[in-house]
Amino acid sequence: MTNDIPDHGDRRVPMPPQSAAGRATATALAPPAAAAVPRQSPAPRQDAAPAPKKQRDAFFDNAKYLAIVLVAMGHAWEPLRDGSRAAAALYITVYAFHMPAFIIISGYFSRSFDMRKDRLQRLITGVAVPYILFETAYTFFKRWADDDPGYPISLLDPWYLTWFLVALFIWRLTTPLWKVVRWPIPLALAVAVAASVSPDIGDDLDLQRVLQFLPFFVLGLNLKAEHFKLVRNRRARIAAVPVMAGALLFAYWAAPRMNAAWFYHRDAAQELHAPWWSGAVMTLAMFGCSLVLVACFFAWIPGRTMWCTALGAGTLYGYLLHGFLAKGSRFWDWYDAAWLHTPWGAIVLTLIAGTVITLLCTPPVQRVFRFAMEPKMDWAFKKDPVGAARHRS
């Protein structure tokens, strides 16, 4: 049997002679000889470009700013409650959700906290040091403005607004614990209920507030971005209107009948002259009520960048600094003016409170007081040899 394809073996079939044009084309396309290519040293290794800075979420900055405005307004309304049932109703309604909203956001942004060195340093410089400085400053302010030279400096007994810094420090340190337990929110609620019926806890570090507000922080730790999106739609915004209106009507009815101290979460039930079991009932009921109102509040928060969005980064400045004016207004009898206790006076006072707290959150104020709020303090911490070696490389 013969093959259809002839086998030429090792024989070479001569190619036809190349034309001059073909030789020119081959010469042009051929790579240069290896000897003609100069040897080059490898290019130096380029450092990777730094990762772009993570942008802040406008929704949360807007929420923090509006929450701190409500804090200031609530403090402005407090002396008006006795003479105005409407002011008392507004005060109760705002106090039912403004600090829970702030604490939930604080918990949400504490999700990544662990015992890593840099995060512990930020906790010390951003929370513990401001607490020490402002607790001391508030004490000297009270001695001078209230003519009380014997008022003691006590870091174990937070005065006025500084309780939040103590609470945030403790909550954040316990974050790893809430990440490993199976039912963190029910456990935190159980702790809050136990605190509300335990008058022996005392006033050290304002532990009643730390423990009774704890469920809101733990809830924030367990929330995800999609949970906030559930209330950020048109249907939720519309539903929030009758809910908030109903809350205001209920507050108007309850103002002369209810002890507003329940909203401060700083006392056990027995200290409010109520039966012990009412502490458990009120803690659970107010937790549910606060969550509903917080959801309504979040539903109305715009998610786009606005003129006030940048102020959300300075809310702690406004919170701590406005305390001097809030307390000074009582020490210096500013509320003795009769016009403040009229409807127009209350409106003007509300606008003043909103304007002052806004100014205290602005970047110029942040630059002036950054030494107290966000001190660098590199000198106070040991150098990280691993981090230094990474930086040199």
From TrEMBL:
Residues 1-53 are annotated as: Disordered. One of its GO terms (molecular function) is acyltransferase activity. InterPro entries: Acyl_transf_3_dom, Nod_factor_acetyltransferase. It holds the Pfam family Acyl_transf_3. Keywords: Acyltransferase, Membrane, Transferase, Transmembrane, Transmembrane helix. Residues 58-361 form the Acyltransferase domain. It comes from Streptomyces ramulosus. Residues 1-13 have a biased composition (Basic and acidic residues). Residues 18-44 have a biased composition (Low complexity). The chain crosses the membrane at residues 59-77, 89-110, 122-141, 153-171, 237-255, 275-300, 307-326, 338-361. This is Acyltransferase family protein.
